[in-house]
Amino acid sequence: MLGYIQLAPAVRFLGAQTVPIFPRIILIPLLLLNYLVLHVFLFTAAPPGNARRFSVNLVGESVRRFFLTLWNTYNFFVTYANIDKIRPDLGAYPEAPSELDRWILSELNTLIDEATACLDGYNPTEAARRIEGFVDILSTWYVRRSRRRFWKSEDDNDKRSAYQTLYNCLVTISRLIAPFTPFLAEELYQNLVRSLDNNVPDSVHLESFPIVDPKLIDSDLVRTTRMVMRIAGLGRSARSKAQMKIRQPLGNLEIKVRSQEEAELLVHSIGYILEELNVKELHGAIVWSEEQISNWFEYKVRPNLALLGGKYGSKVKDIVQHLGNSDPSVIAEQVRLASKIWVGDFELLPEEISVSQSDEEGWVSASEGGYGVRLSIGVTPELIQEGLARELVHRIQNVRRSAGFNIEDRIVTFYQASEQVRNTMTSTRFEEYISGETLSDGLVEGPAPEGAYFETQELEGETLTLGVQRNF
After folding, report:
1. Whole-angstrom distance, CA of residue 428 vs CA of residue 399
2. Whole-prediction pTM
3. Rounded distance between C-alpha atoms, residue 399 and residue 362, angstroms
């Protein structure tokens, strides 16, 4: 007997029709799912003819990295398009594309160009890897950063452009992946294309392969956005290093890039970085040289006794004394430049001095490949309360999901909590924010009524009870 797996409920796309919309559950035999995933794994693991490592864990990684990422992105689009009764136009360009729309369409056309070249060169492995990489940035950057455009209630050009852009990407992906994952490609095509237009080919496998549109490729925009993504990644690493949750706002951010040209490109995208890292403002200008970030660190310098002992004998104690009286940051810079270093009357080589560095007090930094980020980690009472408001939104959203509510359901939220939480829930600054983010028509202090769903949790060492009830 075949086993079945239930994927995230994928709603059949009904466009602008007014008939009731019901969840369409996709049941895929486990053997077929394994076959689908195996296609992705075999194409991306290694070029044809090369030895491949194979295990359940490796195939599972392919499921998470490509199959489920694409499916969840597709499910996100279909779910919200049905709620908003959106009927995108096949092959149309967004009416009022944002910078984010123009970037992902540029990445999409770059992908078409690269995948076509790889397949023409009989290199399906690299083509599949490029597609996998695009699906990742479509989900983790474009969709994630565009979510509020889909969620907002007003139906404006910005919202329609987000839908049209994501639709174009998913339809194009269905055609790109057809040679690699034929069944998944067909599912996307039938639901996204055939359900809207019966005049198109009956199958994605009767469609032509996508053709690149060079006019949509903006190399500078792609380069800048990838730099923003890299800086944001370093910022998240710095937060992790300091054990600061992303929901806790921070005050200041400093950035280092590799050149003045990159600094000039990045300056127009600072807003994305600040929003992504939940930081209030950029402190100072974007810098591009190691000398400009020497003040980021505190240095300690020590003589390398293993090398100096045989060379200077009893004079080592004089070197230690002179080194202790020197400016550590100056010595560290000389070591970095690999220049000879004068310590008192002694000329030392860079390898004869050991340098260690630590973040300046009140800051945390992360760097890689010539890029660097520094965050101030001192938080004011105002920032702490804002972080608590964000945490409460996160907790209420989780309770909503556990209660089994639909994403569009309006609710009433009940809470029993500490004075700090109560002050945040009732503050003029955050009450509207919490209500809006959680679709709550009321934030009521007190126990949840009979029949409401509730959970008791711990927050900052205090007991927090949250209850939710649909507001019909």
Report:
1. 24
2. 0.81
3. 35
177 near 192, Cβ under 8 Å?
Answer: no
Q: Which residue's structure tokens are 């007014």?
A: 18
Report whether 360 contacts 295 (CB < 8 A): yes
Domain count, the chain: 3
pLDDT digits (tens, 9 = 90+) for 343-374: 888 888 888 888 888 899 999 999 999 999 99
Cβ pair 298, 358 in contact under 8 A: yes
Q: Which residues form the domain of 460?
A: 382-470
CA 44, chain centre distance (Å): 22
Residues 196 and 223 in one domain: no
Q: Do residues 136 and 65 lie in contact, with contact meaning Cβ atoms separated by under 8 Å?
A: yes
Q: What are 410-468's pLDDT values in tens digits?
A: 999 999 999 999 999 999 999 999 999 999 999 999 999 999 999 999 998 899 999 99
d(C-alpha 389, C-alpha 434), whole Å: 7
In order, the DSSP letters of 81-118 are: HHHHT--PPTTPPPSS--HHHHHHHHHHHHHHHHHHHH
The answer to whether residues 196 and 82 touch, using CB atoms and an 8 Å cutoff, is: no
Q: Which of 375, 294, 360, 359 is nearest to 332 (CA)?
A: 294
Map tokens 């994605």 to a residue.
204
